[in-house]
């Protein structure tokens, strides 16, 4: 029963985070002189996953398999696995970083397949920078192709924007 409660709490938390990030990353930056709510300007952030820092990769893999996830990528000998359940992705990383990280992959769908018309990570970075968001490890805006950058939300949660194309 305890395992069920932990699972239900985790899934509820993931749903709430999705709603929270939808409200953060879909907004209109134009000045408004009325009290009407802002209209959303959709940013194309790509596939979403959460990257979990785990203590025991084998135990974590077994736990998420019990929740219906299957291994989608990574390798035990590389100390990371990407687990998938339908369109939900969870990265399990042992010994690679200390905190959990929310990850967006511009240009990819949940199957790591290229999507047409995606928003380049440098455009997303420029948008967030113009909104006053502090960029950590910024992507070189003069480059093209694969790049990444990190931001922290108001509570200190790390958010990685990692473009592979």
Briefly say what this structure is.
With 165 residues, this protein is an alpha/beta fold.
For the termini, the CA-CA separation is 43 Å
Summarize model confidence as the mean pLDDT: 83
Which sheet architecture does the biggest sheet show?
A: 7 strands, mixed
CATH topology: 2,3-Dihydroxybiphenyl 1,2-Dioxygenase, domain 1
Q: Give the name of the CATH superfamily.
A: 2,3-Dihydroxybiphenyl 1,2-Dioxygenase, domain 1
Low-confidence parts lasting 5 or more residues at pLDDT below 50? 3-35
**General shape:** globular
Main sheet strand line-up: 2-3-4-1-5-7-6
Share of helical residues:
25-40%
β-strand amount: 25-35%
- The SS-based structural class is alpha/beta
* H/I helix tally: 3
Helix/strand order: HEHEEEEHEE
Number of beta strands: 7
Number of domains: 1
What is the CA-atom radius of gyration, in angstroms? 17 Å
CATH class group: Alpha Beta
CATH 2nd-level architecture = Roll
Outline the structure in words:
There is one protein chain. The chain is an alpha/beta fold and 165 residues long. It has one domain (44-163): Roll (2,3-Dihydroxybiphenyl 1,2-Dioxygenase, domain 1), CATH 3.10.180.10. The chain has helices at 2-25, 57-66, 121-130, and strands spanning 47-54, 70-75, 80-85, 88-94, 101-105, 147-152, 158-163. It has a seven-stranded mixed beta sheet with strand order 2-3-4-1-5-7-6, covered by helices on one side. Strand 3 and strand 4 (88-94) form a beta hairpin. The longest helix is centred in the N-terminal third of the chain and has 24 residues, at 2-25. The termini are far apart. The model is unreliable at 3-35 (pLDDT under 50).
């Amino acid at each position: 029963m305890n395992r069920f409660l932990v699972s239900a709490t985790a899934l509820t938390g993931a749903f709430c985070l999705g709603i929270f990030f939808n409200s953060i990353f879909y907004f209109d930056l134009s000045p408004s002189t009325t009290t009407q709510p802002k209209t959303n300007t959709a940013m194309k952030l790509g596939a979403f996953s959460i990257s979990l820092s785990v203590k025991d990769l084998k135990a974590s893999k077994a736990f998420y398999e019990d929740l219906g996830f299957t291994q989608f990528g990574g390798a035990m000998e590389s100390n990371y696995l990407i687990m998938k359940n339908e369109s939900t992705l969870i990265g399990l990383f042992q010994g690679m970083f200390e905190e959990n990280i929310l990850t967006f992959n511009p240009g990819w769908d949940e199957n790591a397949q290229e999507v047409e018309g995606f928003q380049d990570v440098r455009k997303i970075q420029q948008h967030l920078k113009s909104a006053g968001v502090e960029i950590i490890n910024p992507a070189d805006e003069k480059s093209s192709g694969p790049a990444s950058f990190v931001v922290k939300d108001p509570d200190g949660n790390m958010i990685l924007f990692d473009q592979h194309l």
